[in-house]
C-alpha cells in the first residue's frame, strides 16, 4: 500500500468518526429536549386572562354556598346527651328527638379538621402563568419489589361502625340516637361530630323540641321536652381569610 492509500484510509476513518460524533450530538439534543424539566407556556396572554374571568364568574356564583359549607366546618358540632335518672338498668335504649321551628341539620363532608376546596364546592383557579414542569411518568407506579410486598400483606378491612346519632332535616330536625345499655344515673353522649344546626333568618333565644325513649322490657314510651340554646355569633371573616391565606 502506498502512502496515498494510507492517507485515504485515514481520511475515511476521520470522516466516519465525524459522522458518529454528529449522530451522537443529535441524539443527545433530542434526549435533552425530551427530558427537559419544563415545557413552555402554550396559552396566549388573552387566553389566560379569559380563563381568569371565567373562573371569577364561577367563583362568585358558588361563594354564598361555600360560606355556609365553611361555617359547618368552623362551628362546633352538635352532640346529644342522654341521662338515665332512674335507679333501673335500662337495656337497648333508643331516643328520638324532634326540634321545632325553621332549623336545619347540616353534616360535614370530607375528612380532617378543616375543609378543602372540594368540600366548599369552589371551582379551582386556572393554572398559573408560565412554564410548567413536564410529567415524565417517573413516579407513576411502584417498583416490582414494592408492589409484591404490598400484595403479600393481608387485607384487614375495618368493621363498619354506624354513627350514634342520625340527623335529618324534615322541615324541622329529627334525630335518632342509638344508646344501647344505660346504667342507673349514667350518662351517654354521642361522639360523631358531623352535624351542625343552622337557623336562617331571625334567630330565637332557644329551639324547642320533644323527645321519646324506648328500652327493651318496657312496654311504654318515655317522653319529655328539650330546649337547645343558641350559641353566640361566630365571626367567620378571619377564619375565611386564614383559610385562603389572605393577609
Descriptive overview:
- With 247 residues, this protein is of the alpha+beta class.
- 32% of the residues lie in helices and 26% in strands.
- The protein is built from four helices and eleven strands.
- The strands form four sheets. It has a five-stranded antiparallel sheet with strand order 6-7-3-10-11, with no helix packed on it. A two-stranded antiparallel sheet has the order 1-5. Strands 2-8 form a two-stranded antiparallel ribbon.
- It is elongated and about 75 Å long.
- It starts with a helix and ends with a helix.
Quick tags:
single chain, 247 residues, 5-stranded antiparallel beta sheet, 4 helices, alpha+beta, two-stranded antiparallel ribbon, 11 strands
Structure at a glance:
This protein is of the alpha+beta class. Helix content is 32%, strand content 26%. The model has no long low-confidence stretch (mean pLDDT 79).
Write the layout of secondary structure elements.
Layout: H1 3-34, E1 38-39, H2 45-74, E2 81-83, E3 90-99, E4 103-107, E5 132-133, H3 144-152, E6 165-169, E7 173-182, E8 187-189, E9 195-199, E10 206-216, E11 222-229, H4 237-243
Antiparallel strand pairs: 1-5, 2-8, 3-7, 3-10, 4-9, 6-7, 10-11
Amino acid at each position: 500500500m502506498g502512502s496515498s492509500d494510507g492517507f485515504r484510509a485515514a481520511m475515511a476513518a476521520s470522516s466516519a468518526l465525524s459522522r458518529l460524533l454528529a449522530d451522537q450530538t443529535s441524539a443527545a439534543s433530542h434526549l435533552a429536549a425530551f427530558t427537559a424539566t419544563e415545557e413552555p407556556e402554550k396559552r396566549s396572554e388573552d387566553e389566560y386572562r379569559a380563563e381568569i374571568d371565567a373562573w371569577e364568574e364561577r367563583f362568585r356564583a358558588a361563594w354564598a354556598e361555600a360560606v355556609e359549607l365553611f361555617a359547618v366546618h368552623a362551628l362546633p358540632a352538635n352532640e346529644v346527651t342522654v341521662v338515665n335518672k332512674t335507679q333501673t338498668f335500662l337495656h337497648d335504649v333508643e331516643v328520638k328527638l324532634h326540634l321545632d321551628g325553621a332549623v336545619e341539620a347540616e353534616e360535614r363532608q370530607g375528612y380532617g379538621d378543616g375543609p378543602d376546596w372540594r368540600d366548599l364546592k369552589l371551582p379551582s383557579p386556572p393554572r398559573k402563568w408560565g412554564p410548567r414542569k413536564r410529567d415524565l411518568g417517573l413516579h407513576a407506579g411502584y417498583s416490582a419489589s414494592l408492589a409484591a410486598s404490598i400484595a403479600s400483606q393481608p387485607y384487614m378491612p375495618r368493621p363498619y361502625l354506624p354513627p350514634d346519632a342520625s340527623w335529618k332535616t324534615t322541615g324541622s330536625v329529627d334525630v335518632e340516637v342509638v344508646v344501647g345499655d344505660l346504667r342507673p344515673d349514667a350518662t351517654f353522649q354521642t361522639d360523631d361530630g358531623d352535624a351542625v344546626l343552622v337557623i336562617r333568618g331571625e334567630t330565637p333565644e332557644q329551639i324547642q323540641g320533644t323527645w321519646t325513649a324506648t328500652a327493651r322490657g318496657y312496654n311504654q314510651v318515655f317522653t319529655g321536652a328539650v330546649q337547645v340554646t343558641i350559641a353566640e355569633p361566630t365571626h367567620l371573616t378571619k377564619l375565611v381569610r386564614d383559610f385562603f391565606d389572605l393577609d
